[in-house]
Amino acid sequence: MAALSTSPMNNNNNLNLNTIDTNFEVDKLTYEIFSILENKFLFGYTDTEKAKNSLSIDVKQAKNAAGKVRILCIDGAGYTDGILAAKSLSHLESCLRRKSGNNNSHIADFFDAVAGSGVGGVLAALLFTRGKDGLPLFTADEALKFLINNRNKISRRSGILRRVFSPETKSEKLFRKTFGECTLKDTLKPILIPCYDLVTRAPFVFSRADALEIDGYDFKMRDVCAATSADPAAAIELKSIDGKTKILAVDGGVAMNNPTATAVTHVLNNKHEFPFCNGVSDLLVLSLGNGELDFNAVKSPSGFVRIAGEGASDMVDQAVSMAFGECRLNNYVRIQSNGAMAKVNKGKPAKTVSDLVAVSEEMLAQKNVESVLFKGRKVVENTNLDKLELFGGELIKEEERRKTSILPTVVLKNGSPSPRTSSPRTSSATTLSTSSSSS
User: Which option is the CATH number for 64-156+169-178+277-404: 3.40.1090.10, 3.30.70.360, 2.40.340.10, 3.40.30.10?
Assistant: First the structure.
């Protein structure tokens, strides 16, 4: 089995030749390094101290030239069953198309990594899985419509008897039709989707990086989506493509409703794909919530599990905000409902899909809430929509910067994984467990 690692795989954050896969194009980087050496040291530099200071400046400039890694994180269901996150992404994609002047832009074009839990994992899969034309399977608008049209299949909790009499649920049939034979290797960018494994009693994170490195960690996307959104009362058994890794999975929200901390940790320790990313100042993170459940309306055990997941989400938000420190205002944005659960129809809770869409729009129009270092939270002047608009501008700036940069911010693995060696892995979100079950 694979369980979430509690410590970094590799504490060495210095870039060396071993951290860049030999399959990657490094000619530009090599040329830049030797140009610096040639211009600054081989011609005209006799003052050692001056040369030392010059090298320090160049290293600093190179670090800044590497830019920021852009991460998208999506919570589990929440009150809106994923519709708030989907509406947020629909608005963001529209903003990106308007600002970039490209009406064919996709969310996946402007993010370097994505993490999603529960229905958030389904959204991540829809937006970042490669279609037959090489583009993402879904635009943000199409993903929103997918959640609206299939809400009852994805979010409805199926009892244990239904599982016994119907081995394949409606959601599994839906995912099979949507993703076909696509696997984790068929995603466009690094992706992290958690579930909870009942055998090891630990989180299991489906990871593109792991799938490319070890065949035993490659799973079909339809199984990944079924696992991360599985009812805690009706676990789903699934196997890796090679059949060597088995999981008894339930909803990722059980242990990781807000996957932001996992995504940040993964990127900071994945030196193969993010060679220049060494701290939170090198990140641009968008974290999407899905509204807050009404505690008084919860009447089932699975409902209380979701309430607990939301509490954990708030704790993750606080922790991540504190980790970002002073740079959180520009580098970290959290979109979530403001205070009490939104209501429609004169105070009555939303029940239908149209109600949830209206509630999501209402939540986006609310003032944004920021976590303040050691001071709890505060309501700011900008609305959630304003925050998305501003963040979209930052994504565009980073995209434009990369067009003229010689240093690679991201060096994605795209080929077949190289044979395993004795050197430690730096790209993994998961680690082999001694209690692993193999067939």
Answer: 3.40.1090.10
